[in-house]
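Running co-folding for magnesium ion.
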Amino acid sequence: MALGTIFQHDTTDPLAVITAPSPNESPEEKAAREEREAEARGISDLIDEELRAERAVRKKEEGMVKILLLGQGESGKSTTLKNFRMRFARDKWIEERASWRAVILLNLVRSANTILHALSQEMDDEQFGLDDAFTFDDYYRRYRLRLSPLLQGVESNLKRLLGAQPEEIEPQKQTHPITLSPRTSPEFFVRSRTWRNFLQTTRGPEVSGCSLEQDLPDIIDSTEAIANCKDDIKTLWRNDIVQAMLAKRRIRLEDSASFFLDAIDRLSVRDYEPTDEDVLRARLRTLDIQEHELRVDDDADAPKWKIYDVGGSRTQRHAWLPYFDKVNAVIFLAPISCFDERLIEDSRVNRLEDSLILWRAICSSKLLSRTILILFLNKIDILEEKIRDGIMVNRFLPSYGHRPNETSEVVKYLRQKFKDTVRHCSPEPRTCHIYTTSVTDTKTTAVTLISVRDGVLRGYLKQADLF
Ligand SMILES: Nc1nc2c(ncn2[C@@H]2O[C@H](COP(=O)(O)OP(=O)(O)OP(=O)(O)O)[C@@H](O)[C@H]2O)c(=O)[nH]1
Ligand SMILES: [Mg+2]
């Protein structure tokens, strides 16, 4: 190492000769010089250590299959990663399952608070004569008075437990409905590092498959608070007038809201343990890049997989680029049920249009020109619901024209649109594997993942020949 040589004042090294101590050096000067040299040696050792660690990581990664999950916010990337982990890293998945309890309860409470918030707004509009479509009499007012303070307290408590900063805890500011217009405050998130710490501290073998005693009392308090008002929440959630009010205000609850609200009886018992499906449905917006290693094969000699999950909202996309030259395959999630929705970050942009623009960018990227491309046309179940509800695709996607307003036709049309983009935008000819998915459906997704695995491994072997 160059610095080491300098310190020995090697007379054959010109740099060492220049930096050698003066022959007339006083004892004070000598002490000061030795102190400076020791400090420099310390820094040098640190740099060496970092380089060694970096080389070790690179060497370890060399034989791995690296997969990057891409797509806009809420497209289903983290849910896809969960499917991978549930299927191929089963032991770890089971070990971590109990830690999701607070996130699940938070999802539930946030949905209930969103309904209450909308109800309040509706009542205010009514009071000022702005709206007379619904009459919310004392019956509903009592619900609001009884539930709001209680559930806001539970929401704050759960956020604090999950490591939120004080400014992120205030429920009033956070509980904004997901409307088709922009939200004025961000969705709740936990930075991956905080979240991982949370997983580590709440995972405890001493409580069989359940959280560590440190957080458990708080979680149980929240659970009991929810249990005390679960009948009221159920009544509101199942009330036709409330549902009509949500529809009229164009409030779109989170995709998992109905799943958790329908399951409130099961979730609000003291010894509730999250199931696979609960964890899969639990929504936590991704910030930073999350990395997970797993084995997709029983064969110990087969390469390990490293999956990178990124945040999909616009402010997160700058973090994608450094991963482009590292990966063997990209799994791109395009939620095609979003044809009638706008981006939360920019209400002028249609979500399907945003997915198509992103896909074009991925296909055109020179860095990704030899990367295996896999496309999930996701959220087919929600697309089906919307079509059943009579929402007309061509109202939002004029190019759809007079084609039948049927799920299979919409899928066929969009599949072709995405496929054409691959053909027109890729720097060199390539194939792309396209799947229609509902990644919240674990059974069908398991079949898709096996096919993805086999396709990626075949492509990986070909890549090895090319590079
Ligand atoms: N019904 C249904 N819900 C889905 C599907 N895929 C994802 N979701 C739900 O959509 C929400 C968003 O999914 P995530 O996997 O968190 O989305 P993401 O792409 O990781 O989002 P960011 O982390 O913000 O980039 C969650 O509530 C999921 O349960 C699907 O195919 N069908
Ligand atoms: Mg995510």
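Result summary
Residues 1-7, 172-186, 199-211 have pLDDT under 50 and may be disordered.
The chain is about 55% helix and 5% strand.
Job closed.
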